[in-house]
Amino acid sequence: MGSGMFQALIKRWRRNHRKAVVGVLGAASLLLLYCAPELQSPGSYYVAYPGNYTFVISDTPACKNSTPFLLLVVPVAPSGRAARDAIRKTWGSKKLVLGQLVETLFMLGLSGGADASKQQEELRRESRQYRDLVQSDFLDSYRNLTIKTMMTLEWLATNCPRTSYVMKADSDVFLHVKNLVRLLLDSSTAKHNYMTGLVWWHSKVLRDPFNKFYMPRHVVPEPEYPPYPLGMSYVMSMDLPAKILGVSPQLKAVFIEDVYLGMCLKRLGIHPTDPPKDTLFLVDPRHPLSDCSLSKLITTTTKSILQMVDYWQRIREAQTKSGNMCLKSPVVQVTAF
Fold first, then answer.
1. CB of 200 within 8 A of CB of 228?
2. Which of 72, 150, 198, 296 has the fewest CB atoms found within 10 Å of its own CB?
3. Number of C-alpha atoms within 13 angstroms, CB side, residue 187?
4. Domain containing residue 81
5. 315 — phi, psi (to 5°)?
6. 3-class DSSP state for residue 87?
7. Distance between CA 95 and CA 132 in Å, rounded?
8. Whether 238 contacts 160, CB under 8 Å
9. Is residue 98 in a domain?
10. Residue 78: CATH number of its domain
């Protein structure tokens, strides 16, 4: 074999060997990409708020023709028509509770995806029919819940300053409106600087990158969050939306919306208030609730729309009868929508 041919073979071997190494490294990189946790870039722990957002749907008579004592606001995805309809027919249907006017609104962002235009037109038709939608022009997503919350506060501060209280409840929550109004009418309930719900005190900042709520030290250096009410449901006096908005530019908005509210409250020097009983706000109960438990709570998360409807029907039937729900728990047939 001549030296020229030998050199050519050496070059070919080196070239093929280099390709093999690159191929192995590439495969390893892909493996890491798919198997490693979805680590966020430093900026992704914050959300784009404040921003130049506007309201694209806001044709509701709420707070215009009358002044409700209590406003119920439900953040819901644009695609959540079934949840909205169920709430309209159950706990969101009440207008006068213990002599107090109550209104219900649904808060939305914009749809994403290929059918966004079609879904937007459906929302406009729904708004014309029910006049209970408020929509802002941010992308509606889990990571943008803080934006959704702050835009809700903006709308409330502008449109409903004379309302006494506002209750935020997720679309998978059952709300016992009568018990809520009874709490708010109690002489011990504050009329200003008031927020209550399932309050988390000394909540640890999670540092595990694999956790959904991971927060690095450069974003939140403290080991614990300020106290905050769990985002599934909380009620506040109507002076707080404007106050929270006033301090929000001083704090970078993190993606965990209830945590961010707690940060704003801390900046204001306000602590959330624990409810009179720790059974008033329930989250993820292990078993379906008894009639007795339902009669005593204000909110609980539910596993389905059907379960939420069941809870409401049982409460409604009990209220039409005399007697103590804690003495007997009747079985009620559930009517699906």
1. yes
2. 296
3. 0
4. 45-268
5. -65, -45
6. helix
7. 13
8. yes
9. yes
10. 3.90.550
Sheet strands (E) in the chain: 55-57, 70-75, 96-97, 100-110, 133-139, 165-169, 173-175, 195-200, 228-237, 281-282, 299-301
The total domain count for the chain is: 1
161: preceding bond cis by omega (within 30 degrees): no
Examine residue 62 and state whether it is found in any structural domain, yes or no: yes
State the DSSP code for 103. E
Neighbours of 214 (CB within 10 A): 17
Mean pLDDT (10-residue bins), the chain, 337 residues: 47 49 40 37 78 96 95 98 98 96 98 94 98 98 96 98 98 98 98 98 96 94 98 98 98 97 98 96 94 96 97 90 63 41
- What pTM was estimated for this model as a whole? 0.83
Contact 102, 96 (CB under 8 A): yes
Residue 234, helix vs strand vs coil: strand
The candidate with the shortest Cα–Cα distance to 72, out of 86, 54, 93, 46, is 93
- What are the residues whose beta carbons fall under 8 Å from the beta carbon of 250, sequence distance 6 or more? 267
Res 12: pLDDT: 53
